Amino acid sequence: MNMTEFSQRTGVSAHTLRYYEKIGLLRQVPRAPSGHRVFGEKELVWITFILRLKETGMPLEGILQYADLRAEGESTCSQRQALLEAHRDQLIEHIKTQQAHLQALEEKIYLYQSQKVS
C-alpha cells in the first residue's frame, strides 16, 4: 500500500511516518520503481507495535532503543526482553497509581451523591 493508504489504515500521518523513517524507527521501507514507499504487512505489524509502546507511555528514546536492538537481530533478544519487562513494570506501577486516583474520585463522587436530598 502507498503512503496515503498506510497512513489512513494506521492513523499515523504521512509526516509522522516520514519522521519515523528519518529517525530510524521505520527502516528499509520498500520502494516502487517510482521511488514511492510501498508499505506491507511487515511495516503494518511493526508500526502497530510502535503505537502500542507509545500509547503505554514508553518514551520515543526507549522505542528507538528497542528498534536499534531489533535491527541488530536475534542476538539482542534478551536485551529487548529486558527493555520490555522494565517498561511493563513501569506500566503496572502507572496503572496502580491511576487506579488509586480513580478510587479517590469515586469516593468523592459517592460523597456528593449521598448528600443529595431526594
From TrEMBL:
<feature type="domain" description="HTH merR-type">
    <location>
        <begin position="1"/>
        <end position="69"/>
    </location>
</feature>
<protein>
    <submittedName>
        <fullName>MerR family transcriptional regulator</fullName>
    </submittedName>
</protein>
<dbReference type="InterPro" id="IPR009061">
    <property type="entry name" value="DNA-bd_dom_put_sf"/>
</dbReference>
<dbReference type="Pfam" id="PF13411">
    <property type="entry name" value="MerR_1"/>
</dbReference>
<dbReference type="InterPro" id="IPR000551">
    <property type="entry name" value="MerR-type_HTH_dom"/>
</dbReference>
<dbReference type="InterPro" id="IPR047057">
    <property type="entry name" value="MerR_fam"/>
</dbReference>
<keyword id="KW-0238">DNA-binding</keyword>
